[in-house]
Amino acid sequence: MIYSFGSLNMDLVCQTPRLPLPGETLLGTQFQALPGGKGANQAIAAARLGGEVRLVGRVGADDFGYRLMASLKVAKVPTDLVMTDVTAHTGVASIVVDETGSNHIVVVPGANGQVDESDVQRLASLLQPQDIVLMQLEIPLPTVMAAAAIAQEVGARVILDPAPAPADLPDGLLERIDILTPNQVEASQLVGFPVVDVVTAWDAAQELRQCSRQTVIVKLGVAGVVVATEAGGFHQPAIAVHAIDTVAAGDAFNGGLAVSLAEGMALLDAVQLATAAAAYAVTQRGAQDAMPERSQANTLLSAIPSAVRLPLTG
Asked: What local confidence, expressed as pLDDT, does residue 277 receive?
């Protein structure tokens, strides 16, 4: 079983010719209110790819919450572990996407900010050693820490997407994580130097691995991903596609990674399926609607470039 322990948001998406400058007002070309939130997105990504998934989180007692629950049911993700919190509004994300697919995102947590120890205990009552837990940082950090500790105690594997990245991760968190998956912006924030290419991504992954023995996967967008493990690492180039919206790429990747590992794939094969899922997602608009079915990911997988072992020598 895959458990996504995290956020549910309504994404308020504005399409613009380009991203606005500070203080600038632009006329947009399109507006949509779309179900999102990294926890829900990753759950739906995994479900569409054939994984057995449950989502643990909270929504508010409002229309956005109702619509998010309906979206999960359509995707066949059980909603019995998603609580309705009458003390807070449903989380929202304000997203501006330009014609190249680049985006700016502001998240207001709402009910996501109320996820606490009681939610951790609901997860703990179900976890088994063979399970995988997907987590992100759109819920309170102490709750993430507690859930990671429970998963480690049980023996379940934890995949953490450190988004949005804090200035510093809490002491001890990385020791409880099996796979850390920052994008290049998040990796830069975590290590304190710019991550702009494969070389700097490898340096960042190595530094992050010094905190524990976990696997680090740095997502580089059109440059693919860099993977660092205790035994070495590799660079997996991206699949060439025409990107129109990158907002869900990281969630598609994490969902694909969880499904692949749950099926017993080797890490390289798992990363390649996750890369194909992310490649498909950027060719679609929105978040949850952009997640591929397994057949769609497999079609792109046939065109994936070969991985390159790291570190390079000679």
From this structure: 98
* Tokens representing residue 124 in the block: 């703990």
Domain boundaries, the chain: 2-7+36-89+109-310
Q: What pTM was estimated for this model as a whole?
A: 0.92
Please compute, for residue 151, the number of CA atoms within 13 A of its CA located in the half-sphere on the CB side. 31
**At 9, which amino acid appears?**
N
**% of the chain beyond a pLDDT of 90:** 82
Question: What is the spatial distance between Cα 132 and Cα 126, in angstroms, rounded to a whole number?
Answer: 12
Pairing of strands 53-60, 308-310: unpaired
pLDDT at 9 over 50: yes
Q: Which two tokens stand for residue 219?
A: 């997502």
Picking from 81, 82, 144, the residue whose alpha carbon sits closest to that of residue 111 is 82
Q: Does domain 2-7+36-89+109-310 have CATH number 3.30.450.40?
A: no
> In terms of C-beta density within 10 A (0-12 exposed, 13-18 middle, 19 or more buried), how is residue 3 classed?
buried
What DSSP string runs through 160-172?
EE--SPPSSPPTT
- The CA dihedral of 252, 253, 258, 264, to the nearest 10 degrees, is 120
Catalytic residues: 251
H-run or E-run covering 310: strand 308-310
Distance CA 100, CA 96 (A): 12
Q: What band does 314 get if pLDDT is binned at 50, 70 and 90?
A: very low
CA distance 223 to 275: 11
Q: How many helices (H) and strands (E) does the chain have?
A: 9, 14
CA-based radius of gyration for the chain: 18
pLDDT computed for residue 312 by the predictor = 63
Nearest CA-CA partner of 115 in 134, 78, 75, 142 = 142
Q: Is the peptide bond before 311 cis (omega within 30 degrees of 0)?
A: yes
